[in-house]
Queue: 4 jobs
Job 1
Amino acid sequence: MPSLFSLYRKIFFGRKPGWDGQPLPGIQVSCDKVAISAASVSQYANVCGYSFDGEQLPMTYMHVLVFRLQALIFTHPAITFPLLGMIHLRNRITSYRQLKVDEIFRIECALAGSEETETGLTFDLFSKVWVGEELVWESVSTYLYRIEKPGKRSRPPKGDNMAWENPQQWQLSEDLGRRYAKASGDYNLIHLHPVLSKRFGFDRVLVHGMWSKARCIAAMNEEIGDRPVEVDVTFKLPLFMPADVTFCAIDQPESAGKRFELRDGRGRRPHLTGSVRYLN
């Protein structure tokens, strides 16, 4: 796997002028014979609220490895804008079976497709994980490179019409971003310190989107069990730290899956909306 030190040296000190107005090229990278450290998984699980038994990987852990290949793509000369400050809009993970810490993986990641929107340039990164010839895990992440444009402001999103009864209450400390960055390798500056996040227009540090997703899945992990599953989330309003948040999940009809949301402490403003779909 690419060295995080080498990648961040290029990301922090490399000079990229910004998007050149051209569609993004197709770029694909891969890495074979990837092994996992149980100590690294344990640190990640502890930050995200999973119970790690020393064998079975948390569903979202593979994103930690996938992120390295995504960062490698962003150092490509054809990508003319910086990774720092980019916004994660959506993530869908499909887990075809329970993965174990002692397995050896092959990981592929590809950038395919970009679109200019009112808020900037959006694009998708597709990732696949294999054990031998078996596809065991895949994901799609949608990112936004923000471009300031004149125009009307969009209305803040509202929560879903799901019943919001007896939600779980979580308190997020100001150092959560730094702890997650250490466990995951995602050192985007908007998550680390207020002085750094202000460079990108944020008064306080933001929670990592993939921490929010991981924490929600951890809260539903006993019910999901080891079933093949697809978990799709959309990141809504920025979640600043420290914060009090609420989480609630409800079953879909005929046990097809679940709907869930992460909202502010009063249960009004959504930070994340998502769905769980069982594949069998």
Note: The helical segments are 4-13, 38-48, 62-74, 176-184, 194-197, 209-224.
Job 2
Amino acid sequence: MKKNRLGNSELMVGEIGLGCMSLGTELKPAVELIHEALDLGVNLLDTADLYDAGRNEEIVGQAIKGRRDQVILATKVGNRRIPGKEGWSWDPSKAYIKQAVHESLKRLQTDYIDLYQLHGGTLDDPIAETIEAFEELKKEGLIRYYGISSIRPNVIREYVEKSSIVSVMNQYSVVDRRAEEEVLPLLEQKEISIIARGPVASGVLAASGTAKADKGYLDYTPEQLHHIRQGLAGLVTDDRSMAQTAIRYALAQPAVAAVVPGASSRTQLLHNIAAASSAPLTPAEIQAIREQSPANRYTQHR
């Protein structure tokens, strides 16, 4: 599998990673999926302390025992469970980040995290304090690099200007092209990589996604989605399915170092990974997709 450098870091990530959120909570099948992914050349595993209240990190930790050197391990922080309070609370404070990293390390059964990501962010956050926390964790050797997971251009700009992030995880697909307006050009200019999540738009862009398209997606109507799906179907080749075409669209952007589609079954996993060996899109194919899929714009958080 082709590997790309993540920003200006020393991390070389396979262009198809594994978003671990969809693995479920049963240990054996989830570990088997992760092992198969690693055997097939995936090295970027993305999890978060939020997923299944830490269970996802525990499963990933079990799966990488004895294989830690094969993995670029990414997890996230910022969502905090407060005893007696329902749900999660947003906490990007330095104190919480420096506490939470130890809990993640314990669940992941490792002594360092390759990429520690802020799991969100707003302009109301104590951004300087948040950055200080990540920088201190780097100096302490608990993390190698850090990034943010955000779709908000205003927040991304703050971290680009004030921090040493190497990546931004951003929702990006044929039907969510918002990043093309501001985020992708900025990050390409600054040599900061995108890790693209949702490249198949929760299955809307898969061959079997007709029923999902019927429900709409973001601000697209079902009719618009079916039109886009028809266009993608016209670009399917013998070695590239509709979903793989969608994945290749995200990878065609120079700022995108990797995509992290989720997988809850072996079939999904193998299909996603096979996109790595499918034909890249030609400039004409990229143009055809853009003509059929109007570029949506950010209307908030500018």
Note: The mean pLDDT is 94.
Job 3
Amino acid sequence: MLLALLQENSVVLDVEANCRVIDAAARTAAARGAAVLVTPELFPVGYAPRRVRSGLDPSLLPELQERMAGIARSNGIGLVYSLPRVTGQGDWQISATLLDASGATLLSYGKVHLFGDDERAAFSPAREAPAVVDFNGIPTSLVICYDVEFPESVRAAAVAGAELLLVPTALAHGFDDVPQVLLRARALESQVTIAYANHSGEEDGCRFLGGSVVAGPDGGLLAGAGGEPQLLYAEVDPGAAARERQNVPYLAERRPDLYRLWGL
């Protein structure tokens, strides 16, 4: 299965411009044969947590969600997008959604680990564990940005059966070790393929790293981007995770009863 990752510069609160970028990328990726396009964290509204919280009318979110479904449907490609969501209790959270090629929602997830003062001022952390769905024959899950830097998040997805983890992110310049080292370690230790799609350029004073990557379940680098805008592609072998888990059974040989005694 061919994955496509959008690495691009969004415009804060310019929904029309950002949607045009997603639509064009979806069209190009679909023509290339990609099954899914993964877009960066909060890309449709831009990554600027305080400005988004103060300037985005939440009544527009259902229309924007339908816009994303229309992009997937019209281009015949799966789509991962990230938007704010408002809970029944009025809490704002950062979310990610996986759509199939018909625009139907397969999976939604709320960000559990918020990064930095701006995110904590604008959003509340979610609590649900990563869920798993079948996407084109591969058990697939979602986490968002900082979540993937915690081994517990990735391991929870893997224990639930995930073999592919799709990750919208907004990683600033200066954190090069996250995509270059940490992501590959996460993929190796939980034997999942991880696709990590980041912003590039500067948005609202934040300079983004780029550096989007796809890491295989053996920790190998399947694809990697530099700092410039681009569409990144990687072919995922549907049998790769199962082979790695058979060769070295990390998941089967865990000892969670003992870890609980250790206070983990």
Note: The chain has eight helices and 14 strands.
Job 4
Amino acid sequence: MDDLAGRSVSGSAGDGLLVAVDSRIHRLPAQVKIVALFVFVLAVVSTPAGVFWAFALYAALLAGAVALAKLPVTTVLRRLAVETPFIVFALVLPFVATGPQVDVLGVSVSESGVLGSWNVLAKGTLGVIAAIVLSASTAPRELLSGLERLRLPSTLVAILSFMVRYLSVVSDDLHRMRIARESRGYAGGRVGHLKAVAGGVGALFVRSFERGERVHLAMQSRGYTGRMPQLAASGAARNQWAEGLVISLLAVLIAVAARVAGL
């Protein structure tokens, strides 16, 4: 515990992906934003892929959310890189899917594959942007508090809490090990160097495991009984729920209209 003295989940232990600005979305309770994200994503994934106007409206809603959260567009675009595997899959899908073929720019591709590719790209991108808004407007500790208020099992909340708290500690260990390797002439880039990397990963695992044992014993000596102190002090007011769910409820209306139009 000594190596964590003075640290906090929302402080030097890292603010995660939080963009520290003051906005209406930042001020909303975390549990409201989590429910809003879940409802929005549920509306998006339930929308038929062929109803293109619905996805344009979803994109407009998300653009409004990004503007309300005062998030830099460059930050949102940079974090969209996490979607790269889905983009690669979507680009390959028209060439491997079966069914009727259609010519696109002189190339024969599967018609169902093109629609499936659009489905993956559109819904995946909208979902990722919505998650970016949540992560950029909510500190890790607030997210944990929100999950606790939503009655997530206390054991899972405790695991996530420790993960957030010790992520920077393990990262610092990894950084020091990299400096130690380089100070001894390690350059990397060769197959023979994999042994050094594997040894470092193993040492990091053992060190983290032993730290966890020491922390657990220290917590038990201070009266830990298996349940963490409650993180959330108060719930959300009705007006906060109403304000936070506006975009998601509009998305639900769009989804309903899209399904009716697709019948």
Note: The first helix runs from residue 24 to 27.
